[in-house]
Write a structure and sequence with these properties.
Structural class: alpha/beta
Organism: Micromonospora eburnea
InterPro entries: 23S_rRNA_MeTrnsfrase_RlmA (IPR052939), Methyltransf_11 (IPR013216), SAM-dependent_MTases_sf (IPR029063)
Protein name: Methyltransferase domain-containing protein
GO molecular function, one term: S-adenosylmethionine-dependent methyltransferase activity
Keywords: Methyltransferase, Transferase
Strand content: 25-35%
CATH topology: Rossmann fold
Shape: elongated
Distance between the termini: 68 Å
Helix content: 25-40%
CATH superfamily: Vaccinia Virus protein VP39
Number of domains: 1
Length: about 260
């Protein structure tokens, strides 16, 4: 197969693959990413077994929450993206979770002090004031978040040089949590190697993880994709690095 035909075939595959939910199994054999050392899903599962009421914010398709081995009596998930809401409702039936669709930033639609535990994996934005409000005294927020400059090599391969990131630093999260009246009891960081073996995997990833290249389309970024395809063919793969941090913040037990 010619190089041109191979390129067009691969980007067509990446462009056609469904991106609903937060399942990356389509990338099997095409891309890999290291996992953070703390084991977020395992930590969430252990915490869920010890509480009566828990909330998952930005649940995606419910993939992490669905693996909780011992869900609490009250388990709620919220999600803003409509295609994910339908996926999450199907996925989370097995753990008896209620999925609530929210819209944007305004507020979490729950009473003050509703939950012992709030969790969130890769939230788009952390609503610290709202999290503090819905936590019961002594309750905890446990979250794995995307760190500053994540996948920067991939962003710059498509967009060119970028200024230093000014958001998503762990220190900013700590300051925001404390400003909301929470006490940070754990903070861990990790840099994780991500490897792409073909340009179809890149296209799929950029369609799914939309903040990597805002406004990405195959048509708009066709030439940059071609250059990256040639680089992958020459070097065998393309390597980028994801930044992650784990943060746990606790509400005052006497408030």
């Amino acid at each position: 197969m010619s190089a041109d035909r191979d390129f067009e075939r691969l980007i067509a595959e990446g462009a056609a693959a469904p991106v609903d939910g937060w399942d990356f199994s389509w990338l099997a054999g095409r891309a890999t990413e290291e996992r953070p050392p703390w084991g977020y899903a395992r930590l969430v599962g252990a915490r869920m077994a010890t509480v009566d009421a828990a909330l998952d914010v930005d649940t995606g398709g419910g993939e992490v929450l669905a693996e909780v081995p011992a869900p609490p009596p009250l388990l709620v998930a919220v999600e803003a993206w409509p295609p994910n809401v339908a996926v999450a409702r199907r996925t989370l039936r097995r753990v008896g979770a209620t999925v609530v669709q929210v819209s944007g930033r305004p507020s979490l639609p729950f009473r003050d002090g509703s939950f012992d535990l709030v969790v969130s994996r890769h939230p788009v934005e952390t609503w610290w004031d709202e999290i503090a409000r819905v936590l019961r005294p002594g309750g905890s927020y446990l979250s794995q978040q995307i760190g500053a400059g994540t996948m920067r090599e991939l962003s710059e391969a498509i967009l060119g040089p970028l200024p230093p990131p000014d958001t998503r630093h762990p220190e900013q999260a700590v300051a925001a949590a404390e400003a909301a009246g929470l006490r940070v009891v754990d903070l861990r960081t990790a840099t994780l190697r991500a490897v792409f073996h073909d340009i179809g995997a890149v296209v799929y990833f950029l369609r799914k993880v939309i903040w990597t290249v805002p406004g990405f389309t195959v048509e708009r970024h066709h030439e940059a994709l071609r250059r990256l395809h040639d680089r992958i063919r020459a070097e065998g793969c393309f390597v980028a690095h994801a930044q992650r941090f784990l943060i746990e913040a606790r509400a005052d037990s006497t408030r």
